[in-house]
Amino acid sequence: MNTFRRLALLLTLLLAVLPAHAQTTRKKAARKKATPSSKVVKAKKKKKPGIKGQKSPVTAEPTDVQDVESPQPLVFGEPEQPSPPDRPVATDKPTVATPVPPPATKPHEPVNPNARPSLANTPAVASGTVALFSVARTPAAADAAARLEGELTRHLQRGGDIPFVDLGTAFPPPEPTPLTQADGLYEEGRAAYDNLDPEAAEAKFRAAAESYEKSPGDFRPERLGETYLFLGAARLLNGDAAGAKAAFVRGAVAEPSTRPDKALFGQDVQKAFDDARAEVGARPAGTLVVESRPAGARVSVRGQELGVTPLRGVTVPAGHHAVVVTLPGHTPHAEYTEVKSGASAQVKAELSPGPGLTALRDASVRAGSQAAFDSETLPPDTAAIADRLDARYVVVAAVSQDKKGRLKAELQAWDVRTQARLRGVDIDLSGRERDQSPEAAAQQARDFIQGAISPRVAESGASGQSLLKRPWFWAVVGGAAAVTAGAVFVATQDKGRPFNPITGGTGF
Length: 508
Fold this sequence. Notes:
Layout: H1 2-33, E1 130-136, H2 142-158, H3 167-170, H4 180-194, H5 198-213, H6 221-237, H7 241-254, H8 267-282, E2 286-293, E3 298-301, E4 304-308, E5 311-316, E6 319-326, E7 333-339, E8 344-350, H9 355-367, H10 370-374, H11 380-389, E9 393-401, E10 407-415, E11 420-427, H12 438-449, H13 471-493
Helix pairs in contact: 1-13, 2-12, 4-5, 5-6, 6-7, 7-8, 9-11
């Protein structure tokens, strides 16, 4: 077989060399047949413009033209632009020259290479946003898929060079519910207080505070602080100093910036409220621990953002606080929690996905199925995800469980614009294989998104052998080379009729 393969290679080389040799031989034969006087061109007489009465000289062109090859193509006919006359033509009016402005830049101005941007010094940044999902192919892998999605997201966002889709834009938060009833009770309490009816004012302000606290995710902290301020002032007018102090403390905790207006309240109210604020500031603070499922939700207290879940050991003033936990695409969670001095309060939020995110998650589950991973074309659900989130890259990790109960994961990434795909990225969830860790998988996804690597395309056939390694392939190549070499040889030797490579003889 090796001897046959060598013969085939030799014939292939002959196939590449003999056509060029045949062409050179034919050119030499054509030059020998040509005679110096093969073309005769008659002389033409041309008249040049001159003075009237004088004869113009006649210029004779050479009659013999040598058949010499020229690298420039021959041009026949009159030139497009005639040559200028020997003498200027006199006109009745003088010619006025129009000044031409100088060019803006110098024609031979040197180019500074340092002024051009260097791609080598420019960090690679993805040219489109990325959407990432981790799905579970079996119910037992749901927790592992959620953890893997968090790890992959954290590793990809670490460098700051991968722009993720803004879920806040895709799923804007719901509009705050108008607290019409609470605002109405507050206004009625103000009217009763202005009419010097402290009993009616206390009842209205107490009802308004309870109505505000029923919607901790929608109320305004400053309005709740003012409500407790007026409630304390009404109680103070009714002679309830202890009740007034409790209301002032609640107002100072709800909104620390609350201050009594000197035009509305007397000195007694201002002094009692300042004492309550001083007592709140002197009390030891407590700590707040907030967890959510899924993690990564934003936590705010009194409208001020404290961080994202899991949130541990955040210092907050002791008192009754409204804790709001929000995550794009999910229903917000809000509740009141009592934080005691020197103690820790804990909030656990179960965030339910909204209808839009639920549909998107269902599409990601289908995009992470085995059939979608084996598809040679862009799956419809992957394209739908990219269209919904306005993303260019869609990264999907699928977590499954084998027969022995061990969890395994596989990652794929699609470039929806170019239809390129990164496939075959295995992830070891046990932590034993460092080259298959979630961090290594995230790095491969980063390289694919930034164009540092190209997607792998399988070139092998069904049996796993390349065509270059198959004996029958070289047999076909050798036979074709032999036929072609014979045809070229006969064509170069025969000086008469052309050789017909189809019939094996001469003529057509």
